[in-house]
Amino acid sequence: MQMLKLGSTGPEVIKLQKLLKIKADGSFGPGTRQAVIRFQLNNNLTPDGVVGNGTWTLLLAKDYSNEAIDQDSDLSAQYFTTPFGQIIHKNFLPKDEYVQQKMKNQYIFLHHTAGRENPYKVIEQWDKDTRGRIGTEFVLGGQSHTDSSDKYDGVMVQAFPEGNLAWHLGATGSGHMNKASVGLEICSMGHLDKDFKTYVGSTVVESQRITLKEAFRGRIHFHNYSAKQIEETEKWIRYVAERDNIDVRIGLQQWIKKHGATKAFDFQEDAYYGNVKGLLTHTNVRKDKMDCYPHPDLVDMIMSL
Questions:
Q1: What pLDDT digit, counting tens, does each position of 241-295 carry?
Q2: pTM of the entire structure?
Q3: 231 lies in the same domain as 288
Q4: What digits encode the pLDDT tens for the residues 191-229?
Q5: Is there a single domain that holds both residue 176 and residue 109?
Q6: Rounded distance between C-alpha atoms, residue 232 and residue 216, angstroms
């Protein structure tokens, strides 16, 4: 079946609309996209609003045309679209798993999880663990390090409502930086050993590996950040920068220009003490962390901001 998305037209769109039991006008507009996302959410598919093989297969197998659609269901409680065209899904932690207080955000921090590709599982683990209110407001899914499955690749999830916080930096030289920062966890297994094994001993398939030209904190092999992750991270940075009025040219971009990428991603004393208000990584304020590493495409994206 033909892949359909916003802007598609023709008889295949009419067929889709009939299956979704919505007005069949042959034009894939916002209403059709909303119905597709609703179907994907209800069937554990990546809710991107694009009708590919997986969505077609389930639509046809379930004879979805016989099911009623609640046109009044509140999709705003499930996801929202930013001014930069990014879909962000809401999967909020219980209220006792984040801090309900408001400070003006002055910092954006990039992290990676050192874990598997599913952003929903990351949030679920934060809920289950006993470490307290640990987490970031956003989590970005990736590709599987064992078979390159891309089910969650580029899926951005919000873990708690805007205006709240959880602890994501650990011990730094600034008492307020964690309260005044917004964080993103990028799903990635992180650094690999010389045999391309993760810290838990699993082997990363060749398509998911990257080897840096220059070692970063003693490591050259890493689980690759996918092209979709880089793309969605850029959209997210632009969205949060506009939302919270943060100048993302301050921090990483300045250090890359001055010192090169490897040193820019390393520990920065001014950042540790909270004196650099802009775009940073966890490694800028912690000597014992590896997130994030200077992936060439990530560096290029940061320089384009």
A1: 999 999 999 999 999 999 999 999 999 999 999 999 999 999 999 999 999 999 9
A2: 0.81
A3: yes
A4: 999 999 999 999 999 999 999 999 999 999 999 999 999
A5: yes
A6: 24
Tell me: do 53 and 156 sit in the same domain: no
279: domain CATH number is 3.40.80.10
pLDDT score of 76: 65
Whichever domain contains 63, its CATH number is: 1.10.101.10
Which pair of tokens denotes residue 91?
Answer: 């999967």
Residue 82 lies in a domain: no
- Indicate whether 254 and 211 sit together in one domain: yes
H, E, C per residue of the chain: CCCECCCCECHHHHHHHHHCCCCCCCECCHHHHHHHHHHHHHCCCCCCCCECHHHHHHHHHHCHHHCCCCCCCCHHHCEEECCCCCEEEECCCCHHHCECCCCCCCEEEEEECCCCCCHHHHHHHHHHCCCCCECCCEEECCCCCCCCCCCCCCCEEECCCCCCECECCCCCCCCCCCCCEEEEEECCCCECCCCCECCCCCECCHHHEEEEEEEECCEEEEECCCHHHHHHHHHHHHHHHHHHCCCCCCEHHHHHHHHCHHHHCCCCHHHHCCCCCCEEEHHHCCCCCCCCCCCHHHHHHHHHC
In a domain, 3, yes or no: no
pLDDT score for 75: 61
For the chain, the C-alpha Rg in angstroms (whole number) is 21
Q: What is the dihedral of CA 113, 116, 120, 123, to 10 degrees?
A: -40
